[in-house]
Design a protein that fits this description.
The structure is a homodimer of 449-residue chains. Chain A is α/β, with parallel strands linked by helices and 449 residues long. Chain A is built from 16 helices and 19 strands. Chain A folds into two domains: 112 residues, Urease, subunit C, domain 1 (Roll); 298 residues, TIM Barrel. The longest helix of chain A has 20 residues. Chain A is globular. The first copy, chain A, starts with a strand and ends with a helix.
């Protein structure tokens, strides 16, 4: 890990004053931002290799996704235009159940490749029940920052494959093994998270144990799905006589160390619970749209000061993992359904991505802005591109105009991971070829065609 | 214009039987598809240069956009997150009014560059009132197929710059000059269209004259905006005592040779008018979202068998001109607002793009499918890419997974215009640099900052 200097026409700091430094530069030492300022000053003051010094570049904090399923990437294109029940029971669950060690590794690797290529440096990731070790190994190898863990399911219901349902104690034991192996791996680049799937696939015992284990260890987190669709919240009410978030709250699954994905069908008193407990919520606009889940009331969360972040969810419900798409779709959905072009402006979107994203991963003290002492997780964007010509405002360009090809370089934990269309940590061509073969095999095995 | 053979793993024909030919090829002579079939047969039967013969390619009809404003591309990023009134009166109209000859050329050129880079081979384009000749010249130079014309406005209202409002006869005279110069230029690659802006900027006399001129000349078309937002339809009702489309219908602005952009706020009897007259409608999902116009009832149009196509509208209300985004956003909006993941499936979307797109340009006999005798307007898509890995179904991949970088080559009128990230007809780098300079000048002049 070498010291380095990165320069850019615009340095978007996202610091307390929201400064954008023109002709700026960062000095990075041992993966940490040690100083930042004008290019002239930084180059005069520090004796380090200038790694990036090209015209037409925006240097910004790497994008943070607060809800992803990297391990589902290999199902991309296998579950389109289906009813939610068919999507889950005929596709996602049987496919997840059939994942083996090798597929787990390559599928998560595909997901991380796509995220990094589109500017994401960190994600809160939910693997599947089995072979989580291999998904985490993919994160280790490619160099992404992630809070990641195995999925927890100890009850099922109609149509859930048996290999996905574990005994409560086995599930927790496996989790503890994984967290003891991986939590804070590589100086904290990888952190562990408990991922109970959702209210209907976990017992009360499991949720309660997840809460007490989270309290027991240092810097752990809980990540689950909540109130994504109407049938889900109706079933939870029938079974528990509580509304969904109220039920989770009663089991300790709310708080600053919890991130709930979706939060679409939320009752008034539940918004109050989320506000009081400062629970993180992750909005997944593409997934909510493609699955017909509904439209999350993002402005309500912002108005109530409930921290709401953004995420792409999984490839089979999106079908991409690009924050450019999530940012634009988030803005579009609020503006279209409210008939208000001023709803959810570009700066609000970037606050969700960077500030609330960092919180939703429990990493607000180390990522989400370019400031002295923070981790060097950086996306370098090239605006000398048809999609951003003409070029005026970097904030508007990032949210409304950029495409994946605007990503010039990605630095994670002070390490140059991707630059000029090439990964420096992995061989993308070999991985794509291998992943495609595994996907064809998986499809034949599970879907029989 | 040379004879050529193009091969691909998948040939999406969009013919009557919706055939997808595996390991297929096209033989093209003088810009026309002369034959198609398996690669083996085509290569054995024809003695022509094999221009594209690489693995992992999908060969499909070029995308068709049925509503664009190429000349607004230079306003990209200058009109974000504003109320509709501010968007129009503080930005779009003054900027349009300030366009000079050179800006008109470079702005439209930017638009065509972005469209072609993202797979579009044809568009129905509305320029501005002045310097339309330069916008059409850009289409001539880059090689796009377009039905294009000057914008017609002969009345204004509060806040409309005077230079945009013409005397009715002058507007028509200028149109006739342009159409006599450009209509059917380059063996029909460029065709003319009358572009009255919308009900509130045109007199009855103008609309009536447009209708009679359209009847007088061969193969002309009418293209206007209709029922895009609630205030517009309310004002039209107040002024004309008719609903908007009813009013246009009374002036002859409906029919198979008419394309109406947007069609969001449409009354029941107006849907019937559109159905009976088989008027084309163009859905612009990104624009409708970003401007907070509302959500078009696409399924209603499809159920009523009213031909509805897709378009990106202009850069200041989008901010891109990519059909990948429009296809995905169209599907997302219907699924999200109906809470139905089966609403507007991938094949429906591609029907809108290709079949209805060709109709909306009055070109259904020459483009929109790969068939013997049709024009060689082709997009070659590379699916060996992270965004389309794994790869299963080409239709689903195009609609839900592809990004602009999946476009490998674009052929228009039998001419290779774009291949492997490079234009063969223009110098993109020079144009981007020049356009950026013009844009900065325009911004300072009009907006004063």
């Amino acid at each position: 890990m070498n010291d380095m200097i990165i320069t850019g026409d615009y340095l978007i700091t996202m610091d307390m004053k929201n400064r954008i430094i023109r002709n700026g530069a960062l000095y990075i030492e041992q993966g940490i931002i040690k100083d930042l300022g004008t290019k002239k000053d930084i180059i005069a003051n520090y004796d380090a290799q200038v790694v990036i010094d090209e015209p037409h570049k925006i240097v910004a904090p790497g994008f943070i996704q607060a809800h992803t399923h990297s391990v589902q990437t290999i199902f991309r294109g296998l579950a389109d235009d289906l009813s939610l029940l068919d999507w889950l029971k005929k596709r996602i669950l049987p496919l997840e159940a059939a994942i083996d060690k090798e597929t787990s590794y390559y599928s998560s690797m595909l997901g991380f490749i796509e995220m990094i290529r589109t500017g994401t440096t960190s994600c809160l990731d939910m693997l599947t029940v089995n072979f989580a070790n291999e998904g985490i190994s993919a994160a280790r190898d490619i160099g992404i920052r992630t809070r990641i863990g195995k999925m927890l399911m100890d009850m099922g219901g109609d149509g859930v494959p048996e290999t996905l349902i574990e005994d409560t104690d086995d599930a927790l034991e496996d989790s503890i093994k994984l967290l003891e192996k991986w939590h804070n791996y590589d100086h904290g680049r990888i952190k562990y998270v408990f991922n109970p799937r959702f209210a209907l696939s976990c017992t009360e015992k499991l949720f309660k144990n997840v809460r007490s284990l989270t309290n027991e260890y240092n810097d752990l987190f809980i990540h689950t799905h909540a109130s994504e669709n109407l049938e889900e919240v109706a079933t939870v009410r029938k079974l528990t006589h509580k509304s969904n978030i109220e039920y989770l709250h009663s089991l300790g699954i709310t708080g600053k160390d919890v991130t709930l994905a979706h939060g679409i069908w939320v009752e008034e008193h539940e918004y109050q619970i989320l506000k009081e407990t400062q629970t993180n919520v992750c909005h997944c606009p593409s997934s909510n749209s493609k699955l017909g889940s509904g439209v999350c009331d993002v402005l309500k969360y912002l108005n109530l000061n409930i921290p709401i972040a953004l995420g792409a969810d999984g490839a089979p419900c999106n079908n991409n993992l690009s924050m450019f798409q999530e940012m634009k779709t988030a803005a579009f959905l609020q503006k279209a359904t409210r008939k208000d072009p001023k709803a959810l402006k570009a700066p609000n979107i970037l606050n969700m991505v960077w500030k609330n994203g960092a919180r939703a991963l429990g990493m607000q003290h180390s990522i989400g802005s370019l400031e002295k002492g923070k981790k060097a997780d950086i996306v370098v964007l090239d605006y000398n591109h048809i999609f951003t010509t003409p070029f005026f405002d970097p904030i508007s360009a990032i949210v409304y105009s950029m495409q994946p090809s605007n990503v010039y370089a990605v630095i994670i934990d002070g390490k140059l991971v991707f630059k000029e269309n090439k990964f420096l940590t992995i061989d993308e061509t070999v991985i794509l070829k291998k992943a495609n073969k595994l996907a064809q095999k998986l499809k034949e095995k599970v879907l029989g065609f």
